[in-house]
């Protein structure tokens, strides 16, 4: 019997990609062996949850805080003059090491928006229009000065590859609320200004957690999920029999070896089958009004950031817990003025439209919106651009759980380093978990004899002053 199941397992692995929707085996993540879809390992929250879902608007490439959310008049006045050595001596800079460090003024004026008077770059008037709904953290800092490890740190809490992403941690702790879509979905878009920043699937991987908790990347154009449709000539009934038969074989083998990845495989077949109905409905925009489409600035399905924002709202409506939108357009080492003009237009309108749309549909109060990148940019010039910068940058939060119209923390007068109320990436992770009712100190997973946490072993603090 053991030989039969071993041979059967080998056959399925070798032939999986030829079974049509079963090719989602490498993508989807749900344990259909569990009947209680909404349950994770945390049966009772540590605190009263404030949010149910997250949309992470990841501005990949490192947006300059000095051309977005951190107004620095002193830096403007010092344009072209040497940076104070007291700030920069012995400090790590990426590609400016050993060069003359000169002040580089913000390339645009800033404007006060809303009753709160939030200072936001004039290139983002639509985001400015919802300033009273936003909490701007201007004192973020991180440890990693190059893109990939900085992305990895922001997403997983560690610069070492192989750790679970924050979305995977949430699914592991809380489960998911939908049974016909993954609980964690990723969408990407490429802008026309700056470099198309590379990103890797490990940013949304489940790491050492069971693979059913990993994120699933949807395609931004064409069919959102590859190999989803039934092969020509195969009926739903025939496919149902195939899925049932394969799952029966899988369960038989699981009875022998008790491998959690077999339960994941069963869930992948079931999810693929259900998604043949749910995904076409997700992508059908005929019920979206012209006013809504115009507000986002898209007709949908064109692969743009605006199109992905609209799709993200539809995913949230259907119970997806964690949605990430990567816009790969913010690596502005040169020509930052022109690049920001382009990139701002790509994200400004749709970001504000998403916030307004979520409010109108009653989803805003229990959704956490995160807008920002993996680090900032230097106050010093790199030709006509800015280099990578880790000591101070900005991040924007929205949703009913955070205080709208609030500015938290500052950098120094040059925008070089976090000065007042510095916030490390670990503090952000602790706060994220707290808003979901989870104490980051009590939420861990044992792997190779160690208890791992999203916030790691170093000190991390919930940013209580920004919570509504």
From TrEMBL:
Signal peptide: none
InterPro entries: Alkaline_phosphatase_core_sf, DUF1501, TAT_signal
A Pfam family matched in the record: DUF1501
PANTHER family xref list: BLL7424 PROTEIN, DUF1501 DOMAIN-CONTAINING PROTEIN
Designated name of the protein: Sulfatase
Organism listed in the record: Gimesia fumaroli
């Amino acid at each position: 019997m053991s030989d039969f199941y071993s041979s059967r397992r080998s056959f399925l692995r070798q032939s999986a990609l030829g079974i049509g929707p079963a090719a989602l085996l490498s993508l989807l993540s749900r344990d259909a062996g569990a009947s209680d879809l909404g349950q994770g390992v945390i049966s009772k929250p540590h605190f009263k949850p404030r949010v149910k879902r997250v949309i992470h608007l990841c501005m990949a490439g490192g947006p300059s805080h000095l051309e977005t959310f951190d107004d620095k008049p002193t830096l403007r006045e010092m344009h072209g003059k040497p940076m104070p050595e007291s700030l920069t001596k012995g400090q790590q800079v990426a590609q400016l090491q050993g060069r003359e460090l000169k002040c580089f003024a913000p390339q645009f004026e800033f404007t006060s928006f809303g009753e709160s008077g939030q200072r936001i770059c004039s290139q983002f008037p639509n985001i400015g229009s919802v300033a009273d709904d936003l909490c701007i953290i201007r004192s973020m800092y991180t440890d990693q000065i190059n893109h990939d490890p900085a992305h990895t740190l922001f997403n997983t809490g560690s610069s070492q590859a192989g750790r679970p992403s924050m979305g995977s941690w949430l699914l592991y702790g809380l489960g998911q609320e939908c049974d016909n879509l993954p609980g964690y979905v990723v969408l990407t878009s490429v802008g026309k200004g700056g470099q198309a920043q590379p990103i890797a699937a490990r940013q949304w991987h489940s790491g050492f957690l069971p693979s059913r908790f990993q994120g699933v990347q949807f395609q931004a154009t064409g069919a959102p999920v590859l190999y989803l449709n039934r092969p020509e000539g195969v009926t739903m009934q025939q496919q149902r029999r195939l899925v049932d038969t394969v799952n029966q074989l899988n369960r038989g083998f699981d009875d022998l070896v008790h491998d959690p990845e077999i339960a994941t495989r069963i869930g992948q077949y079931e999810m693929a089958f259900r998604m043949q109905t749910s995904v076409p409905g997700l992508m059908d925009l005929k019920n979206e009004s012209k006013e809504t489409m115009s507000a986002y600035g898209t007709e949908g399905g064109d692969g743009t950031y605006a199109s992905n924002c609209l799709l993200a709202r539809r995913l949230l409506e259907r119970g997806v817990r964690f949605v990430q939108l990567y816009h790969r357009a913010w690596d502005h080492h040169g020509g930052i003025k022109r690049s920001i003009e382009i990139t701002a237009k790509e994200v400004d309108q749709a970001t504000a439209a998403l916030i307004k749309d979520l409010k109108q549909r009653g989803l805003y109060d229990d959704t956490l919106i995160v807008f920002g990148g993996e680090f900032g940019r230097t106050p010093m010039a790199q030709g006509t651009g800015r280099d990578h910068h880790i000591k101070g940058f900005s991040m924007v939060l929205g949703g009913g759980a955070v205080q709208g119209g609030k500015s938290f923390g500052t950098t120094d007068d040059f925008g070089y380093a976090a000065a007042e109320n510095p916030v490390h990436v670990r503090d952000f992770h602790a706060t994220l978990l707290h808003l979901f009712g989870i104490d980051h100190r009590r939420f861990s997973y044992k792997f190779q004899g160690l208890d791992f946490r999203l916030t790691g072993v170093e000190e991390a603090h919930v940013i209580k002053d920004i919570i509504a």
